[in-house]
Design goal:
The structure holds two protein chains of two kinds. Chain A contains four helices and two strands, in the order ααββαα. By secondary structure, chain A is mostly helical. Classes of the chains: A mainly alpha, B alpha+beta.
């Protein structure tokens, strides 16, 4: 499976565990991302940009703490994505 | 009286405030527009400064805008504002506009446009009756050229600025609160994960040695190669019962942890409740009910199938039958009954056991809800006080309801489970009754009877 899809699914799932269904609603607002459910994610735009925008979408509403949650969720797939493709916001 | 073009200008600004999407930067965006509109209307203001204060007149936020988008801090001598004493300050404090000619008192002479400024129109920004700040308009007109209409319009503008400030303040507070709630939730989530991990690890670590103790106790009791004294036999029976109880408790705790952390899946399908009840009776009849010679009755009647996860429903019904077996005396009876109103289908497990007092009925589905009247029976039968909590959680995951009724102590009890009827329409949309696990799917530990 595309590691970007996995990363996005994991991020949405983690956010969902904290904020509930709003996590999906926010993910649906990201352009270049089609979300039917946590396990039904399609990237139609630039993968790196979509991932960045998803993190920023949560950060805009929920602040710094939400970025940390995204980073934790991303960690498990970080080694499957080339470093140059990892959004700055998710780098430690 | 304020002229028409000024009203239009005011409404334009008002519209802009309501149209702005990011209220956190409302004033940064609206104040330059205010100055622009004022200039368009012919007021020769060189700059505009809005200073917001708290209830003790302590400065909270300041804004400075000039029409060349000149960025400079320190144009307004903030240290001289709200010093209390000057005539204009007293006027502003009482909610009146003031016109100041002595601009050197309030404006820094290093400001490049300082020579052009002839007067300052200072307007109080009020929120209800409280002073929320001041709006300073630096004019190239002499003080005596500022007329009543200009002041009135300025006062209208301050109301708009106050509205914008409140909106910005409310939005910022909301964001702050939202972020605080998020942080608290994130911490709770973390603690919850730790708790789940702890319960899971601790339970597994406990279960392994307990299983060994149970096995050896059973072997010592039943396969001993030396005759056991009555006393020793009694002790071993107690060891065995206590270990059983601990294992059941660990299993129930694991089940609760799995349900609460969303690790349990619900796979719905049409289930024949009568058939399921028959299976359960067959299963427990030979293992448990014969010990107490309890009689089972299944009031077989034509009822529609229910939408449920058969495995989870089986666990629930086993738990209910297990409870009835524990609390029904020798030679007692347990009756399965069924009912449907077309929308739901109900299965009831009725016994003629110890019953439940009215006061205890409400506590039954809580965790560790061992009732005083049933303690002895619970302790001797290996109950954990978690079974009904687990049953309720599972039934609710299956979109059903569960309740208990009893006429009182000594009059038996009836537990009823209601589930959605598996109608044609519901079967077509059966996935709506499914629950997907969050992360790794876990199975339920077997219910102890």
């Amino acid at each position: 499976m595309d590691p970007f899809i996995t990363a996005i699914s994991r991020i949405i799932k983690e956010q969902q565990a904290i904020i509930g269904p709003i996590a999906l609603d926010q993910a649906k607002k990201v352009s270049g991302l089609e979300v039917g459910g946590v396990d039904d994610v399609k990237i139609t735009g630039n993968k790196k940009e979509v991932l960045t925008d998803l993190v920023n979408q949560y950060a805009k509403l929920f602040g710094r703490a939400s970025i940390e949650i995204c980073k934790e969720a991303f960690e498990a797939v970080a080694d499957k994505i080339p470093q140059t493709e990892v959004p700055d916001v998710l780098k430690n | 009286m304020v002229a028409d073009e000024k009203i239009t200008s005011f409404l334009r600004l008002q519209q802009m405030i309501s149209d702005l999407k990011d209220s956190t930067k409302l004033l940064e965006q609206i104040l330059p527009k205010v100055l622009e509109e004022l200039n368009i209307l012919g007021y020769p203001y060189i700059f505009l400064s809005a200073i917001f204060v708290d209830t003790h007149q302590k400065i909270q936020q300041t804004f400075f805008i000039d029409h060349d988008n000149y960025k400079m801090s320190g144009v307004t001598k903030l240290e001289n504002i709200f010093q209390k004493g000057s005539e204009w300050e007293m006027k502003v404090m009482y909610g009146e506009a003031a016109i100041v000619s002595d601009i050197a008192y309030l404006i820094n002479p290093s400001y490049p446009k300082y020579p052009k400024i002839k007067s300052l129109l200072i307007l109080p920004i009020q929120h209800q009756t409280q002073l929320a700040g001041v709006l300073i308009l630096a004019s190239s007109k002499q003080a005596d050229q500022i007329d009543r209409e200009e002041i009135e319009f300025g006062e209208m503008i301050t109301r708009l600025i106050d509205l914008a400030f409140r909106l910005q303040d409310t939005e910022s507070s909301l964001i702050k609160i939202t972020q605080q709630v998020y942080e608290m939730n994130a911490k709770l989530h973390q603690v919850d994960k730790l708790k789940d991990d702890f319960v899971s690890v601790a339970s597994h670590e406990l279960r392994t040695p307990m299983t060994a103790i149970r096995s050896y106790a059973w072997m010592a009791l039943h396969k001993s190669d030396v005759p056991l004294s009555d006393k020793l036999e009694r002790y071993l029976v107690r060891v065995l019962m206590s270990t059983e109880r601990l294992i059941n408790l660990v299993n129930d705790m694991l089940n609760i942890s799995r349900i609460e952390s969303g690790k349990i899946e619900i796979n719905p399908e049409p289930v024949d409740l009568v058939e399921l009840a028959k299976d359960i009776v067959d299963e427990v009849y030979y293992s448990k009910s014969t010990e107490k010679n309890i009689h089972f009755y299944i009031l077989d009647k034509p009822i529609p199938k229910a939408i449920a996860d058969p495995e989870k429903l089986r666990e629930v019904l086993l738990n209910l039958v297990g409870n009835s077996l524990k609390f029904t005396p020798d030679e007692g009876k347990i009756i399965f009954d069924f009912f449907s109103d077309g929308l739901t289908v109900e299965v009831s497990v009725k016994d003629n056991g110890v019953g439940i007092s009215k006061e205890d009925l409400g506590r039954l589905f809580q965790k560790f809800s061992r009732l005083d009247s049933s303690y002895v029976a619970t302790a001797s039968s290996g109950g954990t006080g978690l079974g009904l909590f687990i049953s309720k959680s599972l039934i609710e995951l299956m979109h059903g309801r569960i309740w208990v009724s009893s006429e009182g102590l000594g009059k038996g009890a009836t537990v009823t489970v209601a589930l959605p009827v598996a109608s044609k329409e519901r079967i077509e949309h059966i996935s709506e009754y499914a629950t997907h696990a969050q992360g790794e799917v876990k199975q339920l530990e077997t219910v102890a009877i």
